Amino acid sequence: xxxxxxxxxxxxxxxxxxxxxxxxxxxxxxxxxxxxxxxxxxxxxxxxxxxxxxxxxxxxxxxxxxxxxxxxxxxxxxxxxxxxxxxxx
Length: 89
Ligand SMILES: [Zn+2]
Known about the structure:
The chain is an alpha+beta fold. It has a domain at 25-86: CATH 2.40.50. Helix content is 12%, strand content 22%. It contains two helices and four strands; from the N terminus they run βββαβα. Strands 3-2-1-4 form a four-stranded antiparallel sheet. The site of zinc ion has 7 residues, from helix 2.
């Protein structure tokens, strides 16, 4: 007895445990912007969905959403739309 190691540990990055692996969804283009009730910016995607553009450093760093020029430059950029996966379309 006294077995210390129980074989190789799972490698980091190999976390395919059930629903932990969330697919990112298909890439959709930003067609425009809107704001929600709280004044947060929302991207309008060409699939018809909306996606919040959070500027919440250091987690989400999108200083460009705060300026009109920055937003204009990101029209046409692709975002992963998870809602396309959640809804059937
Ligand atoms: Zn979508």
